[in-house]
Here is the input.
Amino acid sequence: MARAQKLTHLAKGGEARMVDVGAKPASERVAVAEGRVVMTAKTLDLVLAGDAKKGDVLGAARIAGIMAAKKTHELIPLCHPLALTQVAIDIDADRQLPGLNVRVTARVNGQTGVEMEALTAVAVACLTIYDMVKAVERGMRIEGIRLIEKRGGKSGHFRAGRKAS
Here is the structure.
């Protein structure tokens, strides 16, 4: 029988705690996350043409996502503040959805991973897209926010659909 994993943010008595990473060696850590905003083809055309009333939807979403990654420790109570070395946000149109796919790669050279930063950046970039065009379509859906890949640290390499190695 497999040994049960313990939750690292809970102390023995069950109270929430910030994990002590002080003894961990710094290493390069990378996380990739994705999400999507599903909308009508008409709304997607508006976004891609740059005709949204509030301005450059994709540019605003990229900046918002980067800002959110940098502030993750202020939003998620038990996250460590990290000196991120990179946050790259790619937003691609998908006419099959129709909608926009948002993918974030976050990097740090540190003692703890950047999964939460990548996930937070995706969520805020998607929310920004919604906010920028909600006057045209309130029925948009934000879907599929998930971690795709994580590299570095003690737990090794994770890729969605496979176990850590």
The chain has four helices and five strands. The radius of gyration is 18 Å. The longest helix spans residues 115-133.
